[in-house]
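name: query_chain
kind: protein
chains: 1
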Amino acid sequence: MFEKMKLKKAINQSKERIAEIEQKRTRSQAALVEAILRHTEPDDRDVDFFNQFTAQIEEERANLHRLVQQLEELEGKK
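structure:
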């Protein structure tokens, strides 16, 4: 029972972390879109930030998937 609560809390924290990172990525994403629309070269820093945040989001989503699987196994769904 305690393990389920612990996993549910970790899942919620992971979802919140993903949302935070996505918000941070939005600024660099907007700068990249603006550069495309203006037919200019995007700033390297914006590209780097976008790539870093995207990698962090992918890592956290993998972690979230793992946590959800563990919870499902505990609940006997798999």
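note: Helices lie at 2-37, 44-75.
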